[in-house]
Amino acid sequence: MRPLLSAPSLVDQVHKAILSDIADGKLPPGARIIQEQIAQELGVSRQPVQQALTLLRNQGVLRDAPGRGLQVAELDLEHVRHMYDVRAVIEGLAFRKAAQTNAVTAQAKGPAFIRAGRQAVASGSVSAMIEADMAFHDFVYGLSGNPMVAPSMETHWTNTQRVMGEVLMRDNKPRDIWDQHEALLQAIAAGDGERAEQLARQHIQEAADFMIARLGHEKTAT
């Protein structure tokens, strides 16, 4: 972990740093979380770390460890399925609205997100791939014109990062999602809300099916 600069949302930065280490596999399921160590590595006081850890516990990413303290929770595949079901509905709405209200902006600014995503894949960095994926979806949330979409997706993305991290460390298949993202962007840029929603729902459900199957296989193998 790299030391963090002081900022108004320091708790958010600590939350992001811890979650990134979990998604990258640096903190695998069962790993104990040492508050003092994290504070030292990030160059912050214990207070923002404590607040970030409480938030991660409430989000189901961490759990109480035997004895005392916290540890990284195992992924609950049933919870993951429910999460992706909800994501499919919200994302479908966001992509439809984006096509209906901001097709021109999507056409002008969207290709940069696709290029960044492909560059992240080429780099081989799991954290870069996850960040690029999140940036693309967040871009579309903004295009939707609905200010409730992004806040509604925050908790889902916390868990999505974990799922993506677990799979990306083991499999190349999810790395081809930028072909799908490009098709989604083309539907938005064409102003085709119906197709954009259809492709978005399909994109999320296919991702869910693949990732849950992959994670389920890992659990069976171990």
Outline the structure in words.
With 222 residues, this protein is mostly helical. It folds into 2 domains: 10-72, Winged helix-like DNA-binding domain superfamily/Winged helix DNA-binding domain (Arc Repressor Mutant, subunit A), CATH 1.10.10; 77-221, Four Helix Bundle (Hemerythrin (Met), subunit A). Helices cover 73% and strands 4% of the residues. It has helices at 10-23, 35-42, 46-58, 77-101, 103-123, 126-144, 149-168, 177-189, 193-221, and strands at residues 32-33, 62-64, 70-72. Strands 1-3-2 form a 3-stranded antiparallel sheet. Helix 4 runs antiparallel to helix 9 (193-221).
SS-based structural class? mainly alpha
Number of domains: 2
SSE series: HEHHEEHHHHHH
Number of β-strand runs = 3
Sum up the overall morphology in one term: globular
Main pleated-sheet profile: 3 strands, antiparallel
Strand-helix topology:
Blueprint lengths: L9 H14 L8 E2 L1 H8 L3 H13 L3 E3 L5 E3 L4 H25 L1 H21 L2 H19 L4 H20 L8 H13 L3 H29 L1
Helix pairs in contact: 1-3, 1-7, 2-3, 4-6, 4-7, 4-8, 4-9, 5-6, 5-8, 6-7, 8-9
Sum this structure up briefly:
The protein is mainly alpha-helical and 222 residues long. Helices cover 73% and strands 4% of the residues. Helix 5 (103-123) runs antiparallel to helix 8 (177-189).
Keywords:
mainly alpha, Four Helix Bundle (Hemerythrin (Met), subunit A), 222 residues, 2 domains, Arc Repressor Mutant, subunit A, 9 helices, 3 strands
